[in-house]
Specification:
Layout lengths: L17 H12 L11 H18 L6 H17 L4 H11 L21 H6 L10 H18 L4 H9 L6 H12 L7
Helix pairs in contact: 2-3, 3-6, 4-8, 6-7, 7-8
Length: 189
């Protein structure tokens, strides 16, 4: 596959209050995702149905079965952990990197969720090369999107614009919302 630039915009490094930096640092510092546990069999069956359906939909983008399963398990965990809809995160990844682990944007954003390297310095260990690690990239991306969603008081349109560095412009959020629809399960709105 020829090299293609990813879509990440020029996300702006904003000063963070110490409390916000500490909270974000704590959110990305936890261990790798545990095996999911469910309160009841119906929740487990819904998860397994999601995993199977998304695995089929993702086959042409991530062809190796173990990589695809690990990606989806991690994405589900990190999305839910951050209070985000997995379909939205899949749509964002589709727009940002086209599911390319080693994508680098013209602005320098990295990985599946096109995380800007300054985040590694602000809330991580400073090692921006770790942003190519799948679980690290998904955790950072979900934590950052949650941060922007909180900063925008729940306005996902504005949060997506901030995530991309195009706050207030409609092209990027509309593209993510359109891709999100492709990742919804039957019966989801």
């Amino acid at each position: 596959m020829p090299w293609q630039a990813a879509w990440a915009g020029a996300q702006i490094e904003e000063p963070l209050a110490d409390a916000v930096r500490t909270a974000l640092s704590s959110a990305i510092a936890n261990d790798a995702p545990p095996r999911p546990r469910f309160d009841n069999i119906d929740a487990r069956l819904r998860y397994l149905a999601w995993l199977g359906t998304m695995g089929e939909r993702l086959k042409r983008r991530l062809s190796e079965p173990q990589t695809r399963t690990e990606f989806l398990e991690t994405l589900w965990y990190e999305s839910v952990r951050a209070g985000l809809e997995p379909a939205l995160v899949l749509g964002l990844i589709q727009v940002e990197s086209g599911f390319r682990k080693y994508a680098i944007s013209l602005a320098g954003a990295r990985g599946y969720m096109q995380v800007m390297p300054f985040w590694a310095r602000l809330i991580g260990d400073g090692n921006a090369s770790r942003l190519f690690h799948m679980q690290t990239n998904l955790r950072f991306g979900c934590v950052i999107l949650r941060h922007y969603l909180d900063a925008e008081r729940g306005d996902m349109f504005m949060a997506l614009g901030r995530y991309n560095g195009s706050r207030g412009q409609g092209d990027y959020p509309r593209a993510v919302f359109a891709c999100r629809r492709q990742w919804l399960m039957a019966g989801e709105a």
